[in-house]
Amino acid sequence: MEMRSSTLPSIEVRNEGSNIRGFFWRWYRFACPHCGGDLGKSLSAIRVGPSREVCPNCWKEYLGPREWPQLSFGERFDYLFPMTALVYLGLGVVLVVTGVIVGYDSPEKLFLGSISFGLFFIPWLPYFVKRIFEITRSKARCVKAESGTVDASQD
């Protein structure tokens, strides 16, 4: 695994959740350490990708995210399940379990529980599909870097 160089500055991470709404719906904005240019935002403070990136605004190199195998268990969990997802999906589980307990003898209530399940969980499918795709690409970059076929910073 590649060691992170201390000569390059690291990406800046800014938490934009400062009020009660921000506690549940927390966005992290990433900025270039050189020019402060916007590099995107995410629900998680953890990013997965090549360890060296070039800012599209000032064209200077900086330390970017780390690859999936380099992350600890806690960082992997936070990447897959940020606070917003945990709160939203947790409320969905509570709602569905309550609906099943209350309406176990009624087919209509079970149908309503399945609709509630869909309303809470289906909107998150694109998010998790994207995360799995990014993890797969990260693992492939690591395998290529270890075999020495391409530079680890190339995608």
Walk me through this protein's architecture:
The chain has 155 residues and is α+β, with helices and mostly antiparallel strands. The protein has one domain. Helices cover 46% and strands 12% of the residues. It contains 5 helices and 5 strands, in the order E-H-E-E-E-E-H-H-H-H. The protein has a 3-stranded antiparallel β-sheet, with no helix packed on it. The protein has a two-stranded antiparallel sheet with strand order 4-5. A hairpin with a 6-residue loop joins strand 4 and strand 5. Helix 3 packs antiparallel against helix 4. The longest helix is centred in the last third of the chain and has 23 residues. The protein is elongated, with a radius of gyration of 20 Å. The chain starts with 11 loop residues before the first strand and ends in an 8-residue tail after the last helix.
Q: Which class of secondary structure composition applies to the elements?
A: alpha+beta
Note the quaternary state here: single chain
Helix content: 40-55%
Count of distinct strands = 5
User: Which descriptor suits the 3D outline?
Assistant: elongated
Strand order, sheet with most strands: 1-2-3
What is the count of structural domains? 1
Q: Calculate the terminal CA-CA distance, rounded to whole Å.
A: 16 Å
Mean pLDDT metric = 77
Main sheet attributes: strand count, strand direction, barrel closure: 3 strands, antiparallel
Low-confidence stretches: 1-5
Strand content: 5-15%
